[in-house]
Amino acid sequence: MSKEHCYYCFDSLFSHFDGRPVSKPTFDDSPFPLFVTWSTSEDGTTKDLRLRGCIGNFSAMPLHAGLKEYALTSAFKDGRFPPIDRKELSSLVCGVSLLVDFEDGDHYLDWEVGRHGIWIEFKDAKGRKKSATYLPEVAKEQGWTKEKAIESLLRKGGYRETKISQEFLDSIFLTRYQSLKAQVTYQDYLDSL
Predict the structure, then answer these.
(1) Contact, 83 vs 76, CB < 8 A?
(2) Which of 46, 139, 146, 169 is found 20 to 30 A from 156 (Cα to Cα)?
(3) What InterPro entries does UniProt report for this protein, alphabetically (predicted)?
(4) Rounded to an integer, what distance in angstroms lies between the CA atom of residue 110 and that of residue 93?
(5) Which CATH entry fits the domain spanning 101-177: 3.30.1490.150, 3.30.750.200, 3.90.550.10, 3.30.70.260?
């Protein structure tokens, strides 16, 4: 994992805006499950970041195609946010997470805040299968306990019941994983050119 992965995401974004092909990356093309996160910062640093888009895939993808695809998907198709605009480029921070060490949890609290990302699967009131995930840094950045993170993740995944019973919590299937993460600012990217 290196900053080169993030630089390639910036290259992909610039190539999209400029209508030119993206340069071939020099890093390994090994397959990984991955997420690309775009954030903005008023001062161009990694402090006080505001999420602008985060989308990824749990199926291992070759890094060259996967990072290009998810750099653009998270920039333009995260339904929580309007698409990133060219005028935002100087405030952007890119994070790339390569997901590793997937393990089934014994129960919904079988994970560590700050160490594990969590992916939960559950059935809603109509019996439909739902899922949602948080990357390893999310619960720690939000200051959440494991219980609060699970509650938030259920809501993110579409759980709409007012109360969450212990019986329901015990029915959650949890997969924990870890992340190899790099993060660069727009200025870091410019300095790398």
Answers:
(1) yes
(2) 46
(3) AMMECR1, AMMECR1_dom_sf, AMMECR1_domain, AMMECR1_N
(4) 31
(5) 3.30.1490.150
